[in-house]
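Q: Can someone sanity-check these two? First one:
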Amino acid sequence: MNTLRTSRATVAAAAAVVLSFTSAGFANGAAGAHRDNGDKITVGIKFDQPGIGLKTPDGTYTGFDVDVATYIAKQLGHDPKDIVWKEAKSADRETLLQRGDVDFIAASYSINPKRAEKVDFAGPYLLAHQDVLIRADDDSIKKPSDLNNKKLCSVTGSTSAQNVKDKIAPDAQLQEYGGYSECLTGLENGVIDAVTTDDSILAGYAAQPEFKGKFKLGGFKMSNENYGIGVQKGSELKAKINTALEKMVADGSWQAAVDKNFGPAGYKNEPAPKIGVVVQ
């Protein structure tokens, strides 16, 4: 009898361990499940995009995506102190979601069909466009075709500048730098005539104190970039985040965040997008 009781106890203990591991797996990786992290919520953002998502030297986080994510987290029941910020580099975003490393991602994450095969998107919450940034006193670039014979900068690996050369200004002189900060320094010094990427990203950089008043956006709208909140495929968070985004627009917090992060660059934002409507 003692042996039988011992065997039963051993089986029960093993079953409990399996159940514990299974539950943890569902909490951290199963589609539709919220990560089991106590009161904490883990959010992926960019760490290196001023005005969008930036980790400052003092360890705080600023930018439009940060403000949007903070608002969403609050609507999900989390105080700002409960947010664990995780860097979401462009190449890593789908993997972070699929592995369950983050609850959601707000990182200038444009919705497109290829990405939507791997993850779900709430939103969109911002309609951005490919644009150019030029010096505030430069009146020679008034339309996209004026970029012909101009020195056009973008970062290494970006397709933005090549898109302009292929489709709009074939005689543009492409210059690739390691980062947008380098492009802006070149623009400030007259080595570069224009910098191109999403207008929201350009506005974020131009709004930084060291560049304030030195640059302006062209307003060319050369593409549509629908920023969405990335969540795990099949996640129950998608509907909840959409509800939070609608409330953010309705109570004025969305426009306040746009003005705060992009306003100093003279960014003329599109109206808040309608949830589920992706502009082609």
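And here is the second, same format, sequence then tokens:
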Amino acid sequence: MSAGEKDLEGKVALVTGSSSGAGAAIAIELARRGARVAVHCRRALSDGESVCARIAAIGGKAAVFLGHLSDPEAPYALVSRIAERLGDVNILVNNAGPYADAPFRSLSISQWETVMAINVRAPYQLAQSAIAGMERTGWGRIINVSATSAYARSHSVYGLAKQALIHLTECLALEFAPLVTVNAIVPGQIASERTDTMVDYKSSVIAETPLARLVTEQEVARMSVLLCTPEFSAVTGQSIIMDGGRSLPRTLKLNLTTIG
């Protein structure tokens, strides 16, 4: 299948947190492949409109939608507004996910609630709200963007939330089959302008990564699209790690020879 083929023509995609970063890259790539895209942002309407303009420039269709996903009613209202304007959501990419790694002894309850609400509760609510439309159209794809922090034990509530999102992915994959597949993309540190300003951190991550580089926003976007294509129609309930091998378990070599 060529990268220019409109294999998602007629589909409606919601990408949360898509006014910038990897979310914007995912939205643009889905539009490039023919989907009508709901660009979601919390409050940066101008940024969302800018992404829509970039989509229009490549011949795609998109509209921007505001919504603070920490509000318990916002996910349901968001899916409803998108359905009225663009049609039933067929592709849901749960990309929004605020970060906080304050130690548990000092982590505030407001930080806890915000991180857990947007990283876990909102994806559950959005999936719950979108599933009826997916089943009505006979096809659906849900992609949850987790993080390798899910496998670390030093990222406090963020790692906890991202691990919970992987658990939710597997549960939804079982319940929503066979018409809907549900998978997680699990990137490590993503290359970005912000990461470029963190020189020491970036170099230390690269030094620990077998492929000696960071994953890019475009690579995450392309994987999101692939999970929507027929080639991946038998893949569900999986967590696809994209971190250049950094999270692979390693131990010190003893340089011993076993004889006998």
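A (reply): Looked at the second one. The longest strand covers residues 180-187. The helical segments are 21-32, 45-57, 74-85, 109-137, 156-176, 193-197, 199-207, 217-226.
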